[in-house]
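Quick start: what a row looks like.
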Amino acid sequence: MILLEIKLDNFFSFNNFHLSLTYPKKISNSTITDEYLEDRPNFRYKKLIVLMGANATGKTTLGNALIAIFNFITKKSIDPIANCIDDTSKPSSFSMDFITHSSIKTMYRIVAQISPPTATGYREEDISLTISSTSILKTDSYERCVAKLRTINTPNSTYIEALDLIDTFGWYFPYPFSKDSFKNLTPVGKKSFRIVLETVLRALDPSIQGVRESQDIENSYIIRLNNHDLIMKNNEILNSEILSSGTRSGVDIAVMLSSIISSLYGFYYCDEKFSYIHSDMEKAILSKMIEKLGANEQLFFTTHNADILDMSLPIHSYIFLKKEIFGHENRISCVYADQYLKRNTDSLRRAVENDIFSVAPNVDDIDRL
């Protein structure tokens, strides 16, 4: 799955929200290799998206919205998106341009309009859905494919029939305190997972001596400390109170990293997994995730850590979410760092410290206490 553009309206706290995930010009000496569709060098997309912003600006909620849309597409049920609509008395909508991992030479566009529900809830006829697609030729760019989509007439059909046109795709969202991500690992992923888990946990806590797979309990690992053996079953460590918060977070991080190494899903959304982890460790693990990210894959990474700004990543990888209040309406918008910083010598860290993007949290009320 490669996400190219998404628009949301009356979806959670997103109103007239637009996120663009492509870039128009080739970048020389980029630290992220092959940031384009395989065998389609003009079709450029952002492989890494570092999402930053103040609290309650929608970083986690954006992931929830994407999960809902992905589940709507794959399960062909209105329930996931119905639960996302903020004001049910008003229409809502979303659109998305994307490429599936199983059909990388086809670009899809899905546009959905959802009418307010009746007294009995949302019905199939409350959704107006249009799905169009176009082949991506050798020399095509994203912009050229968008132009081709505008010329395509899509026949009317029910939303279930329309969704059948989309090839299958995978994704992975290990949110904070998630307890089910380990269950999703395939045997291929589990083979590398023990090594990754041991490496990450020992880096976070030198007292951990090793990790081995349990022969007696399904989906379980034994974490060996100096004087204790801890059992990890289905991504939850029993008696984990003797471990630090950062070490416990290392389990989900290991699942994410081993999934990327094994190319299990293609689309990854890593949301606030490093709150209890040292900055240098966060940068090291993010660097490894980027290094192991395969062709035609994409990683969203949300963080509050300003040290991530010092990493030698393309400026276009950084997107800041900003929330403003207009009357009774929340407005979340995207601030793209590369629209402000044009020269290689421009400092992203200095721009954020000087609030060039106007995304710093408002601390006035705290100051008045």
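That is the whole record. Residues 2-171+314-367 form one domain. The first helix runs from residue 59 to 75.
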